[in-house]
Amino acid sequence: MIIYPNNSGLRYMGRIDFKDPTAPVFIFPGTSVCMKFTGNRLKIFLKNKRAYWDNYIGYFLDGKQGCAKLPEEGAVVLDLSDQLGAEGAAQNDTHEILLFKRQDACHEVTFCGFELADHGRVLPLKELPERKLEVYGDSVSAGEVSEAVQYTGKEDPSHKGEFSNSWYSFAWMTARKLNAQIHDIAQGGIALLDGTGWFQEPDYIGMERIWDKLHYHPAFGKAVSWDFTNYIPQAVVIALGQNDSHPDDYMKRDYDCEKAIFWRKRYKEFIQKIRKQYPKAYIICCTTLLSHDASWDRAIDQVCTELDDGKVTHYIFKRNGTGTPGHLRISEAEEMAEELSAYIEQLSIEGWE
Prior knowledge:
Helices cover about 20% and strands about 25% of the residues. The chain has helices at about 140, 170-180, 205-210, 250-255, 260-275, 295-305, 330-345; strands spanning about 1-5, 10-15, 15, 25, 30-40, 40-50, 55-60, 65-70, 75-80, 95-100, 105-115, 120-125, 130-135, 180-185, 215, 225, 235-240, 280-285, 310-315.
């Protein structure tokens, strides 16, 4: 029995392209679909488009996490039936699958549906929580290289994307601790401004250009705008300011130079754009434990002070900018999530009672 993506029993989370409701496209890390079902068969139909790295899809089946490598291009069928229990498992056994995007826009994946046994049924799921969180960030927010736990506190190992897992990003960890939905608008290598960072080197693309987009990677065609009425968070985290030092760490070199002043101006304008979309949201600005010069946090603090908006705050982690020279591994992301979720919980956020 085929369960099409527009089946009302499926539950989605993330900034998803539903232009074709029978073939939704997952772009951002942490984007997911969940289904509760009966039966002893489960197949997943997907189509992948690769920009770079090896691409993997993640899943939780009955609480056990797994992943599968995807082809560079085209259709694939994942058969997880053998993971539904012992051979001959009862036809009425209940299962739950959470299928999620482990990586950023190094690829886009189209979800084409599930296949269950002929006797299988889709069962009702719990409603998504009322709390809604949105995160704008870079590779740390995306969970890049998070599974390379043997390199905790060290530089990254050589990799092709196999260690990246948005489930272990501080962003998704924070959402789980808060019992909140999440839209994780995170892209590895991205800075605030075009012409800086690492994303799409040497023609760097900044968050200013992608924050309001659904599709944004040049490899996949023309950019497509996002409809902000589809998801209105009560809390927004802006975790930018680390990749901005590449290729020139001008904030460290001269805090009052022309480039530094311009960055602070544009960072302020970026916050104001978020505020325009979400007039009632709390906006929490931060960087991360990843090594960077403290001048960037000083700049963020200055901007937040100048805005004089009681719902725009700046959080600095205990090991901010000094925790690790490489990407955050699971334990380091957990450390960030524990701090950040505790901080957000004590804010008086409307709708989070």
